Amino acid sequence: MMVELGLLLRRGREECKLMAGNLYGQGAVARRVGIAQSVLSDLERGRVSHLPEPAVLNALARDLGLSAQSLLQAAGYDLVSAEAAAALQAQAVRECDLSAVLSVQYRLSSEEAAAVKLLVSKLRDAHSQQPVRPTK
């Protein structure tokens, strides 16, 4: 299980690193998520003796643009329902710092970056106001 989690994390981080460079080095990701770089390294290598906290996996999913559900399942958590997964995914969308990634990727000026940040904020607000539909 932990090997699968490690592969997902490393692949996700490497893909982000291709787009945004050093913003997605192990140290940078670990700092943003609030864990030590050694912990992220151990997670990526599948060298952990206990389940990582769901909050850590959720934070990693947000930072790397991955599915929180897939990380939780790969770590061995049994997700209760599709509704719980949808809620985690919605939270990841709301908290993702897409404007920072786009600013680096497209070398935006400070004015362009501010415009992107405003647009992302408006999209998040619109997304959070959508009613949640129950699943069957």
Q: Report the C-alpha radius of gyration, rounded.
A: 16 Å
Q: Give me the CATH fold name of one domain.
A: 434 Repressor (Amino-terminal Domain)
Oligomer: single chain
Instruction: Kindly estimate the percentage of residues that lie in beta strands according to DSSP.
Output: under 5%
> What's the story with the biggest beta sheet?
none
First-last Cα distance: 29 Å
The tally of strands reads 0
Structural class: mainly alpha
Q: What's the tally of helices?
A: 8
Low-confidence stretches: none
* Global outline: globular
CATH superfamily of one domain: lambda repressor-like DNA-binding domains
Summarize model confidence as the mean pLDDT.
79
Quick one: CATH class of one domain?
Mainly Alpha
Which range best describes the helical content: under 10%, 10-25%, 25-40%, 40-55%, 55-70% or over 70%? over 70%
- Order of helical and strand elements: HHHHHHHH
Q: What is the CATH architecture annotation of one domain?
A: Orthogonal Bundle
What does this molecule look like?
This protein is mainly α. The chain has a domain at 2-95: 434 Repressor (Amino-terminal Domain) (Orthogonal Bundle). Helices cover 71% and strands 0% of the residues. The protein contains 8 helices and no strands. Helix 1 runs antiparallel to helix 5 (68-75). It is globular. The two termini are 29 Å apart.
